[in-house]
Specification:
Blueprint: H1 10-29, H2 36-65, H3 69-94, H4 101-112, H5 124-127, H6 130-138
Length: 141
């Protein structure tokens, strides 16, 4: 029996989410003003960065299980920014501080600057409604 190869690894998912984040940043940077689509794009950034953050812990735990503690910790430290920026963006949106958006996007640009977006691959359906989804998460159940 041959080896089982996981084609949907956390590394691949992380790369996909980072590309989505880079695309959302580029789309947001050319928006003339704040509209419903821009709100949805900002929320999409949060969801993408959350998935990156979750994937880092998953990858690091694999290294921990193999007793590569330093490698696991280095991975966590290198990607700690993803969770922090997602939390900052979420707080900004929840507190309706949209004037802070350009500064937060500027903090994120260096993190995705090595990702080349030649062609936009995301469609409006990929981010449509994400703002409402984010707000619904905050509502008490």
């Amino acid at each position: 029996m041959g080896r089982v190869i996981n084609t949907d690894s956390t590394g691949k998912q992380r790369n996909q989410q980072m590309r989505l984040a880079a695309e959302m940043l580029r789309r947001l940077s050319v928006k003339a003003g704040l509209d419903d689509e821009a709100r949805d794009m900002a929320a999409t950034l949060i969801f993408a960065l959350r998935k990156v953050d979750e994937g880092i812990e998953s990858s690091a735990s694999v290294w921990d299980n193999r007793d590569y503690y330093m490698k696991a910790e280095e991975l966590r430290q290198r990607w700690a920014w993803a969770g922090r920026i997602a939390d900052e963006l979420q707080a900004m949106i929840i507190q309706d501080r949209w004037a802070d958006l350009p500064a937060l996007l500027a903090k994120l640009f260096p993190k995705v600057s090595d990702i080349t977006v030649v062609k936009f691959t995301s469609k409006e359906a990929d981010w449509a409604g994400n703002y409402n989804r984010l707000i619904a998460e905050q509502s008490p159940r």
